[in-house]
Amino acid sequence: MTVVGCLHPVTQLLGWLALLVLVQCLGGWPLAAAFLALPALSRRVLARAGRLMRRTRWLLLSLFVVFAWGTAGEPAFAFAGAPTVEGGGEGLLPLGRMLVVLVVVAAFLEYLPLATLLSACNHLLRPFARIGCDAERAALRLHLVLRYVETLPRPRDWRSLLQAPPVPEREVLILESRALTSIDYACLLLGGAFLAGVCLTGGGA
Question: What is the 3-state secondary structure (H, E, C) of the chain?
């Protein structure tokens, strides 16, 4: 078991979520350095990230178009309706952040075991039991949704989306239940302080 694997599931999940927030604070050279570090990831992560980018390609394109054509400035080309230079520059920043977020999500799905994710969600939802939230049932529903999304084939037409998925074989879901240790609290404290510091300084934006 790795060092990260020894941490509490809640600590691991919050660490991944903090990484997503950190990406939104990056800009300039830190964001460029993040892109340069992407080839160091495994092929499985990059392949999964590529699939996520293909699925969200229209969203990514729309994000850039909104900035490129919606920001006032000097036209980039000498014809009517051309995007602006300022809009293109401003559109590249959120587009770059979104691409890095998709890679982080791909790494999250690849490296974080499903049992760890469900255990973390179960632990975080327990305090809401007083208002009627069943943590174990919520974790089970999340498990079913993730399983369905992973096994959902690419539809050839909209009718295939209305067909009931095949019934999976019976399986046992074990949720880990243990208290956070002092190491977990230390990691959460240091990680929160580091994230706050980066966000307050702008992350190089």
Answer: CCCHHHCCHHHHHHHHHHHHHHHHCCCCHHHHHHHHHHHHCCHHHHHHHHHHHHHCHHHHHHHHHHHHHHCCCCECCCCCCCCEHHHHHHHHHHHHHHHHHHHHHHHHHHHCCHHHHHHHHHHHHHHHHHHCCCHHHHHHHHHHHHHHHHHCCCCCCHHHHHCCCCCCCCCCCCCCCCCCCHHHHHHHHHHHHHHHHHHHHHHHC
